[in-house]
Amino acid sequence: MKRLLMMSLFVGFCATAMDAQGLPYQNANLSAAQRADDLLSRLTLDEKVSLMMDTSPAIPRLGIPQFQWWNEALHGIGRNGFATVFPITMAMAASWDDALLHQVFTAVSDEARVKAQQAKCTGDIKRYQSLSFWTPNINIFRDPRWGRGQETYGEDPYLTAKMGLAVVRGLQGVGYNGEDLGVSKYRKLLACAKHFAVHSGPEWNRHEFNIENLPERDLWETYLPAFKALVQEGKVAEVMCAYQRIDGQACCAQTRYEQQILRDEWGFDGLITSDCGAIRDFLPRWHNVSKDGAEASAKAVLAGTDVECGSEYKHLPEAVRRGDVKEADIDRSLRRLLIARFELGDMDSDDLNAWTKIPETVVASQAHKDLALKMALKSIVLLQNKIKVLPLGNPLNAGAGSDKDIVVMGPNANDSVMMWGNYAGYPTHTVTALDGITRMAKTLSPDATVRFIQGCGLTRNEVFESRFNQIKDPLGNSGIQIAYWNNTEMQGAPVTVVNRKQPVQLSNGGNTVFAPGVNLENCSARLDGTLVPTADETLSFEISGDDRLRLIVNGDTLVNIWNPRQRIQSGKKEIAVKAGQHYRIQIDYVQETGYGALNFDIKKRVNPTAEELLAQIGNTQTIIFVGGISPNLEGEEMRVNEPGFKGGDRTSIELPQAQRDLLAVLHKAGKKVIFVNCSGSAMALAPELETCDAILQWWYGGEQGGAALATTLFGMVAPSGKLPVTFYKSTDELPDFLDYTMKNRTYRYYEGEPLFPFGFGLGYTTFNIDKPIYKNNKVQVRVKNLGTTAGTETVQVYIRHLADKEGPKKSLRAYQQVTLNAAEAKTISIELPRKSFEGWDVKTNTMRVVPGKYEVMVGNSSADKDLKKIIVNIK
Length: 875
Description:
The chain is an alpha+beta fold and 875 residues long. It is built from 19 helices and 38 strands. Strands 13, 14, 15, 17, 19, 20 and 22 form a 7-stranded antiparallel β-sheet that branches. It has a 6-stranded mixed β-sheet with strand order 9-28-27-24-10-11, sandwiched between helices. Strand 37 and strand 38 form a beta hairpin. Helix 2 packs across helix 12 (327-344). The longest helix has 25 residues, at 98-122. 52% of the residues are buried. Belongs to the glycosyl hydrolase 3 family. It comes from Xylanibacter ruminicola (strain ATCC 19189 / DSM 19721 / CIP 105475 / JCM 8958 / 23). One of its GO terms (biological process) is arabinan catabolic process.
């Protein structure tokens, strides 16, 4: 009955028009503010409060539909079925191409509108299916240990602002420069700048952490500029307040930040949402700034937090009754929410809103995959290239014997899920490093051999051998039996029963059914087999999938994931088995809606010796080692039991020792080692400068990452990515993780010599950048390609106020990319208006353009040796 009621409510929204009832809030010709005021007057207190929760229910008596404030689109639509998965945001920042990023998020918002429309027409909008998206994350990446650094656009305020503006404009349906595209009078989506205002870890204590005595300079010159740009230039619809406290007060109750800075100084008229559970954190168990939920909710509303992700706002009626907050205060917040929903066209006929007409075929379309490939190509950063070992070109035709063979090694070489990063959707297909390299090698030389030898794990000298071939089905045949039902209860006769002889790797990606006749959604399966080991050994039974799954061995339930979270979940159990004994295996699986996947294998852990690995490699000379770390180790508030990691953060930024040792073995054996590093941020790779002939930073490259990597390795496209963060030599060079001051942090304040500087990145050619000229608010500079191949260079402009001895050594203020053919030269002009010289004025304690002499530095990285300098006088 509930579902029928919901469907009846929504059918009008998906039909050609909704019957108008003639009330002002239903009049699409009135302004969003006028409509909000009218609707606000018709709501009860309980109804008002319900609309301020992130899961906002329908109010049928007023025709208000469901709404979900919490949706994710960090680098593609997240947690909502199939979608195009782009490289992680840190990787996209490495492109230094905000125009391309705007194209990416225009594609993302197209997919978002389609998915929201599909959900709307079902009559039941679930989490992650509406029109408000909590992205971008524009926190400044101050410390490489922060596990969520992969979600940011790096360590520089200017680059972060440029990238953030591109994201917001792409999501909200305006042009690259903020111009109205003339598509619809409604907003396309609501974007959200997060996490306001000073937040970059650690993950393990964020619900209790207090930032004290932060210098005003660091606040205004480092942590706030990107937020100000998104509010004032990007017209971002939402801002999210962070978990921690600042000077003893929780961020989501900070009147100074939410009222004085955001609204009074910057003129923000959008809405503020809490991070998830942040209002709960006010309670005694965490920040201890409120005695109960009613007081916590009242404090948040009074400070200006309009939407709660959590459940404490349910206490607001109680807070009103006891005088903690007035209903008028609630009205002020709710008015902002209602305006935002009216601006989306959320309560109007689809006929009035062109955004609702985007065709469903755009989701995971070939055009969007091509865009993911283009971004993945531009995100790869070449860090080292001894004796120009890259590009490989076509070494497979160079001669006989070992030159016709490539070995791909490393724990990340064949891991597709690693490439998705965090907060990801589900791609219809992922091209791994191994896939891409194999395909490219075969294309260049059909008789080429590409072999995969894993070599080691991420953090341990271990690999896993499958024992799946020791399973027999109920009839005694090799393999496991799988029975499928086209219902979620495994009831009635199965629609098909099959035998599978390989490890289970099933997904409905690309609309691929698990077996003939089986539904893509709302289906179930039971797997049945018996393991008969051939030796006494300890085996790992490993299972993962989406949605529900259960692993039972000899009647004991080893893994029970029966409460799905709309994402891949996994479990494993080690069992000491005896040769010849029988181990009955039963797996129950249920696929409900959206993405479906089931993976199962039985593995033996093996610790290969250096001698054994070299014997497997044989005479092969070219080794492509794909290693680094993984989103399984770094991310948001994680439980990781591995050395060097804590709560999703890192305690060590060095490459794990197991990989470091193996690279040294390969180097000592005389192999040509090409190291491809996967990570969400900076890694300390000092020893790898010696043991590796080439080093590429691949990040987590998204669904087309393997194709981009292979295209780059073999020289089809030259790398052009630049680091958006500083790569330090070791963890020992980092300040205390809990210290939020900028002293000795990032390229702007770092006192040491970095391993690789901010803005650094090699190509397959070299460029000369002449001494610049500053004239008419522009930097003019001649750039020449000195090589024999075409390439793209990013010309970077930094400034320094010479009289400011306490300020940053240099600060990025502009950049421009230029593509030149071999031996071609071009003079480019880069805008550098007076406002670009804004900085902290120590005399007035304000941000302003202080007249005086400035050093303007132009080059291809932030390193002094890469910059040409001039002095300009700003009046």
